[in-house]
Design a protein that fits this description.
The complex is a heterodimer of chains A (about 160) and B (about 1000).
Chain A (H helix, E strand, L loop, with lengths): L1 E3 H18 L4 H23 L21 H32 L8 H11 L3 H15 L20
Helix pairs in contact in A: 1-2, 2-3
Chain B lengths: L1 H21 L4 H17 L9 E8 L4 E7 L1 H24 L11 H20 L3 H19 L6 H32 L4 H6 L5 H17 L8 H4 L5 H10 L1 H16 L5 H20 L5 H21 L3 H32 L10 H4 L1 H14 L6 H14 L8 H27 L9 H4 L6 H19 L2 H13 L16 H18 L11 H33 L4 H22 L6 E3 L5 H18 L3 H22 L2 H22 L8 H5 L2 H25 L9 H8 L5 H9 L1 H22 L58 H24 L7 H27 L4 H21 L9 E6 L3 E6 L1 H35 L10
Antiparallel strand pairs in B: 1-2, 4-5
The chains are: A mainly alpha (about 160), B mainly alpha (about 1000).
């Protein structure tokens, strides 16, 4: 099938702008990037679906068109459009709540992830791991003291 | 058979209640369950191969996974052992869990349930003929073993042992599952009986058999997967007696015994079993003679004996099978009894360390007699069953056909292993009960409190059984011979206490003599032999290897997480997007693809609109002012709408325009709470790499689209859809029929997402309760005949002038607004336009099936009407417009759509199909009505509910919060 350049360039430009915005840390700008990407993908589906033509409504025709536009692509895009609105509303509510709590709109590094990556960057992590067996006893006091039942032997016997 | 399983299931459910009510005494009634099951087994004992009991219940025929139960001789032998010892162990538990201060352990109720469930699972395992069902019971015992071993969960060693047992046996189990599936597929049946009767062959079958063996050997603690069993001694002693001596560890042996008649000659089977079995026997025997903990002596002894039994039942040949099964029965009796004895010692003295026990035999003579009887059976002294079994072992190995030339070597290894058995038997008895040259009992023994008679009953019964079967083994011989006969080669040997003088008897005597001499001469042996280094070499390593494996897994996971999850969203997204660029483009550059046919544009309108869209997108990137950027994005959205319209997609264009407008409103509602401009510093950071990645992604998407379009050659399904929609979906508008009928599942999913989004918005704004509707004008009922002065008396402290404040009320709710925010023109226009928009909304909704429109367009239009009322009249006006709870509208909408889906099922049609109903209305004439309209009504309600929820939260509620925040600073700064 014939490939038209203008829609393709349009899709590429919208996607690029969208990705550029998405890579920021500001929630509203990320959302705007998402919306741009959404528009680009809708155009993509429409374009890949086929050439323009009559609307897929029986008995209606566009001037000069001989074929019918792909209804399947349209059905998918329609779903996508409405969902994008729902997501936009949700992210905006999230932005509002986050701003009210922190008065900052930037998304910070995830502290848990940061901690893990910081630990794993250490060269002596292997040595740390070896120590954990002994550390364990300090952090969680072991209750291996011989009980009335099943008095456990010391280390000399086990396995 | 089902009755036994069901009885155990019910008992499992009842056990916690019973223990809570009666304490440890509840083990008495619980022990009746396996006992009664045992009587079922006895009454239904299969006499020969022909009259097996069989039950077949279809479960998952598609996976060949049906409940096929088969009660043959082997199953009967195993279930008799499992149930009898299960009953005794439960009986024994009553005294074992007796504490001096009379308290009941907290986890005892669940412990009781697990123990009973284990007995049932074990029974299920041995009677399952279907391998998949067998696997199910197999893993059930694994999980129960994990729970039972980890009974003292507050101890670190218990938790470690339980996890280790779980990991090792589950890993083996998974290998076994793969083997089962391969075997089932190649053999054409998942029934053990079919496979053994007609064993398949081939390379795949050999692999399958090896995989199954891995599972069986890991379960039976054979080297190199043996180390979990000594670790599992952290369990309460009844668990050790039951799971780790009599039942669970025998599951692997059982499976091997089950498969031997068919698969003993499969390549790999015999070498694996014989080599690993003998290694296990020798290594574990060596470890057992060096332990100080009574329980560990027994544990390593068990591992050693399991090695021997595996060799016997797995080598093939009827005599060896008979020997193996005899050994299995003998072992279950004496080892369970000995574990119980250790439990009694532990309970009475508080220790199991042989260095702290002296003179115990003198202080507890009854216990000593029981222990001596059981140990004699273990050491193969006549006239105990252990002796009969050992004689049979030697005899069968001596004349084994299946082992061929290897038989003498195997026999030699077994003799050496048996010497170890003699030594650790003596060590056990001496260590627990001897005086050890001390003048008086050790402290622990001196403080001993005497075990009650009931405590000793269970081990006494088992020890007596060992003696009884030893003296009169003919009944046991009948039973075991039934199965041994079925092994190719048959069995002509018969169990007996006295076989006359011969090599077996000589070997038995030799083993006893050498073992005794070594034990009593142990002090004179070179110390080097018992040096720790040597002793730890083979077995300690297995445990350390396990630790090292786990640690390196942890380490790799940790490194991987640290390397990929840096915690920064842009960094994570960059990785994902870079993958999107690299992988498809790399694949494209390698493979062949069609050459696209290029043209510049489809219509001259495209470049003009395209320029506007690109300008909007670039503007959104550059502009720092949020509102300006939002408007720019809106521009691209409207531009897309235009392109849709000219493409021949009126539905899309309509929806896009409506959605774009609504999105703008939502943005504005939220942006009023945020600073006007984004942080310039943050915007400038990493500008270049971001731009490079962005352009790369854009280019990739373009290239992919080009290639995808060039590759299209077939006739699209879209050509068929218009006719299908018209003749089968009864609608002229294909897109709408697509949404409410052809792809209605998709729509159902989508409206669920919308519902979730709406709920999310409301929950984020209203932190405590998301229910309720927008605020309403207080209803003051005016006295009859008096004019309604309500609004004028309203709490409006400001007396600022607005042309909207006057005698005529255009919008009721706006009377409660700050007059400075009111606009007469907007209020009047809203009053006039609102009904028109609602009519338009209804029109879109009802005609959507045949003309552009439908539930989405109608709902969005109604939503816009709500927005207009809210913007013109404020939050009270919103409440006046639609005084309903948004959550309820959403719920009704989704419920309606879901009910339509289900209703078509009741009418015998597939889910979500639509039908057409014709009827006549006076004056209007014949009407056609498509049931998909109900589905579309659900969609309509969901969209309206979403808009209402957003307005209520981000609009009305934010108004209040903004006023509340502004109040302390400067009173009277309203929203707008």
């Amino acid at each position: 099938m014939t490939t038209y350049l203008v829609p393709l360039v349009l899709i590429g430009a919208l996607t690029s702008c969208g990705v550029y915005l998405l890579l920021q840390r500001n929630l509203t700008r990320m959302l705007l990037g998402l919306l741009l990407i959404g528009n680009a993908l809708n155009l993509l589906i429409l374009t890949v679906g086929g050439a323009s033509g009559n609307p897929p409504v029986r008995g209606r025709a566009s001037a000069g068109a001989t074929t019918t536009a792909d209804p399947l692509a349209q059905g998918m895009i329609l779903t996508a459009i409405v969902i994008t609105m729902g997501i936009a509303a949700f992210v905006l509510a999230l932005t509002y709540r986050s701003y009210r709590l922190t008065t900052a709109e930037e998304v910070d590094n995830d502290p848990e992830d940061a901690r893990v990556s910081k630990l794993s960057d250490k060269d002596d992590v292997a040595a740390d791991e070896d120590d954990t067996a002994e550390d364990l006893h300090e952090v969680f006091p072991d209750t291996d003291a011989p009980d009335e039942l099943d008095a456990l032997p010391g280390h000399e016997g086990s396995r | 058979m089902l009755a036994v399983l069901i009885a155990h299931a019910i008992a499992t459910l009842l056990a916690p209640l019973l223990v809570k009510r009666w304490g440890r005494q509840a083990f008495y009634p619980l022990s009746l369950v396996p006992l009664a099951s045992l009587s079922w087994v006895a009454m239904n004992w299969p006499d020969s191969q022909s009259d097996d009991h069989r039950i077949q219940i279809n479960w998952v025929p598609g996976l060949s996974m049906n409940i096929d139960l088969r009660f043959d001789t082997l199953a009967a032998i195993m279930s008799a052992l499992v149930l009898a010892i299960g009953a005794l162990v439960l009986f024994y538990c009553v005294d074992y869990f007796h504490h001096h201060d009379g308290h009941t352990e907290k986890r005892l109720p669940s412990f009781a349930a697990e123990l009973v469930a284990f007995s049932g699972a074990m029974f299920g395992l041995v009677v399952s003929d279907n391998m998949l069902v067998l696997y199910l019971f197999w893993e059930l015992t694994t999980v129960l073993s994990f729970l039972l071993v980890g009974h003292y969960a507050e101890r670190a060693t218990s938790r470690r042992a339980a996890t280790q047992a779980l990991l090792v046996t589950t890993a083996g189990g998974l290998a076994m599952l793969v083997g089962i599936v391969i075997l089932g597929q190649y053999g054409g049946s998942y029934l053990l009986s079919d496979l053994v009767a007609h064993p398949p062959s081939g390379a795949a079958v050999s692999v399958a058999i090896v995989l199954i063996l891995i599972g069986a050997l890991s379960k039976s603690a054979i080297v190199p997967m043996h180390f979990w069993l000594p670790g599992a001694m952290a369990a309460p002693t009844p668990v050790s007696a039951y799971l780790h001596a009599a039942a669970m560890v025998k599951a692997g042996v059982y499976l091997i015994a089950r498969l031997t008649p068919g698969f003993a000659d499969t390549p790999g089977w015999r070498p694996i079993i014989v080599v690993l079995g003998l290694t296990t026997m020798l290594l574990a025997g060596w470890r057992a003679v060096r332990e100080y903990d009574l329980k560990l002596i027994l544990a390593f002894g068990t591992v050693s004996q399991l090695g021997l039994i595996t060799v016997l039942v797995g080598s093939g040949g009827g005599d060896l099978m008979l020997a193996g099964l005899t050994m299995l029965c003998a072992h279950a009796m004496f080892k369970a009894a000995l574990f119980m004895v250790v439990g009694v010692i532990d309970h009475s003295t508080g220790t199991r360390d042989i260095r702290r026990l002296a003179w115990l035999g003198k202080r507890a003579p009854a216990l000593f007699v029981i222990a001596a009887a059981a140990t004699a059976s273990m050491a193969a002294l006549p006239p105990f069953l252990g002796f009969v079994a050992k004689e049979t072992d030697f005899e069968a190995l001596l004349h084994s056909q299946s082992l061929g030339a290897a038989a003498p070597y195997v026999l030699g290894a077994v003799v050496v292993g048996s010497v170890f058995t003699t030594i650790y038997s003596l060590r056990f008895l001496w260590g627990a009960f001897a005086r050890k040259g001390l003048p008086r009992p050790s402290t622990r023994v001196a403080d001993l409190h005497r075990p009650s008679a009931t405590f000793l009953t269970a081990p006494a019964i088992l020890a007596a059984a060992g003696l009884a079967f030893g003296i009169a083994p003919s009944r046991l011989d009948d039973v075991l011979d039934d199965y041994a006969e079925s092994v190719p080669g048959g069995s002509d040997y018969h169990l007996a206490l006295w076989h006359g003088l011969g090599l077996p008897l000589l070997l038995s005597a030799l083993v006893l003599a050498v073992g005794t001499v070594i034990f009593f001469a142990r002090d004179r042996l070179p110390r080097a032999l018992s040096d720790k280094e040597v002793g730890y070499l083979p077995l300690g390593n297995a445990d350390r290897f396990y630790d090292a494996t786990l640690r390196s897994l942890d380490f790799v996971a940790f490194k991987l997480t640290g390397a990929t999850q840096r915690g920064s969203i842009p960094a994570t997204q960059s990785v994902i997007l870079a993958t999107l660029v690299l992988v498809p483009v790399g694949a494209l550059s390698l493979g062949a693809h069609d050459r696209p046919r290029f043209e510049l544009w489809e219509s001259p309108l495209q470049p003009i609109v395209g320029l506007l869209i690109v300008a909007g997108a670039v503007g959104a990137v550059i502009l720092r002012n949020r509102l300006a950027a939002v408007l720019m994005v809106g521009l691209t959205g409207y531009g897309c709408g235009v392109i849709f319209a000219f493409h021949g997609a009126p539905d899309l264009a309509l929806t896009q325009f409506l959605v774009e407008t609504l999105t703008l409103v939502i943005f504005v509602l939220v942006l009023r709470t945020l600073p006007a401009e984004a942080d310039a510093g943050a915007m400038r950071r990493f500008r270049l790499p971001r731009a490079v990645l962005a352009v790369a992604v854009g280019a990739t998407v373009t290239v992919l689209a080009t290639v995808a379009m060039a590759a299209r050659t077939g006739r699209p399904i879209a050509d068929l859809l218009p006719d299908a929609a018209y003749y089968r979906g009864h609608g002229a508008n294909t897109v709408n029929v697509l949404l409410v009928d052809i792809r209605a599942w998709d729509t159902l999913g989508e409206i669920s997402v919308l519902l979730v989004a709406a709920t999310g918005v409301a929950s984020l704004v209203f932190r405590h309760q998301r229910f309720g509707s927008a605020p309403r004008v207080p209803t003051t009922t005016p006295a009859a005949g008096q004019p309604d002065f309500g609004p004028i008396m309203a709490p409006s402290p400001q007396t600022a002038y607005s042309p909207a404040v006057g005698d005529t009320t255009w919008l009721r709710g706006s009377e409660y607004r700050d007059p400075r925010n009111r606009s007469l023109v907007l209020e009047v226009a809203t009053r006039l336009i609102f009904p028109l928009i609602m009519v338009l909304s209804a029109y879109f909704f009802f005609t959507g099936h045949n003309t552009p429109g439908g539930g989405f367009a109608g709902g969005l239009t109604a939503g816009l009407a709500l927005v207009l009322r809210y913007l013109a009249g404020g939050r009270y006006e919103l409440g006046e417009t639609l005084p309903l709870d948004a959550g309820k509208i959403l719920g009704v909408g989704l419920g309606l759509s879901a009910c339509t889906a289900v209703a078509s099922l009741f009418l015998g049609a597939p889910v979500l199909s639509s039908a057409v109903v014709h009827f006549d209305i006076p004056l209007l004439g014949p009407m056609k009505f498509v049931t998909a309209l109900f589905f579309d009504l659900g969609v309509y309600l969901i969209v309206v509910g979403l808009v209402l929820d957003v307005l209520r939260s981000l609009g009305a509620r934010l108004d209040e919060e903004i006023i509340a925040n502004a109040q302390p600073v400067r009173s009277g700064t309203g929203p707008r």
